[in-house]
Amino acid sequence: MNNLDLGTTAFVFGSGAVVDSWDPICDALRLYFRIEQSKSDAANFLLSHIVYGMRTSMLDFIDAKQRNIKAEEFSQFKRMICDSLADYTSKNTLKPRSEFDDIFELVIRNSTHIAAITTNWDTCVDNAIKKWCDISVLHVHGIYSDPSSLFLPNEIIYDNYRDIALQKKFEAINIKAATILCEAKTIVIYGLSMSPLDVELAQIFYRSFIGTEIETILIIDPEAAKVAERIQFTFDNNCQWIDLIPCKPDEIGLLSYDILHRKRTLKIQQQA
Questions:
Q1: Contact call for residues 87 and 193 (beta carbons, < 8 A)
Q2: Buried b vs exposed e over 18-31: b needs ≥16 C-beta within 10 Å?
Q3: Where do the domains of the chain lie?
Q4: pLDDT at 45 (0 to 100)
Q5: Which run of H or of E encompasses 246?
């Protein structure tokens, strides 16, 4: 593992890096919809439903009063999510997964520079990172301390209900994230599904592959092969040299420079 030269590394993590990460969101959904059960898959469906409702409220035939009611409901729901996350955070309920320390040790010991990006609204992994190094984590989908910053599944920057100031704020965050990825030699993706609902994240990755320095993308996830396939769809034709390496969390101890080299050699053979 000590021979694994990652160079400048972008560490990108999602909800899969946290144990039961969807629990506070599901709590908020149960309260909002007055339902007894809500799991992560259902949560994504319900969140997208809320976004759809907000978009349709801006159609021409909807009167101003109804638009204002819908906008307030939308803001209230985001506050409910943030309140739930704040409650879990204050009780120290959210925890990184057991393999996090092994993964981040691999990153920090083999990188010349590290930048971190997350799609998470909580700061659970942020706090775990601070035990290793003092870096700021860029929250591309918002953070629970600022309800207006929350980016729900299926939302895009230029949604018809978003004001210009907020659009520009999100634009700046996405450009910063794409720049971090573009300037990295290695991207380590941990617990991030690259969900088809997350079109803005796909766009960030697409931007990062233009004039990129990226050599290796290491994906650590129980469904790493599926995530790798999704990321590959965002590749430009000029980025075929990038080593895309899927790895399940329980395989992290097997990684070495030799494995990276074999993957590179295999790709060259497949393309010949």
A1: no
A2: beebbbbbbbbbbe
A3: 7-19+95-271, 23-90
A4: 86
A5: strand 243-247
Ranges of residues in the chain with a pLDDT under 70 are 1-3, 37-40, 211, 236-239, 254-272
Task: Tell me if 260 sits within 8 A of 216, measured CB to CB.
Answer: yes
The CATH number assigned to the domain with range 7-19+95-271 reads 3.40.50
Element holding 165 (H helix, E strand) = helix 164-183
How many Cβ atoms sit within 10 Å of the Cβ of residue 2? 9
Residue 65: Cβ-neighbour burial (10 angstroms; 0-12, 13-18, 19+): exposed
Give yes or no for a contact between 178 and 207, defined as CB atoms under 8 angstroms apart. yes
CB 181 within 8 A of CB 187: yes
Taking only the tens place, the pLDDT of each residue in 28-46 is: 998 888 877 666 677 888 8
Task: Report DSSP state, residue 145.
Answer: T
Sign of CA dihedral 66, 72, 77, 78: positive
pLDDT at 213: 78
Question: Can you tell me which residue has the tokens 């918002």?
Answer: 142
User: What's the confidence (pLDDT) of residue 192?
Assistant: 95
Which pTM value belongs to this model? Answer: 0.90
Give how far Cα 109 sits from Cα of 164, 216, 251, Å. 42, 17, 18
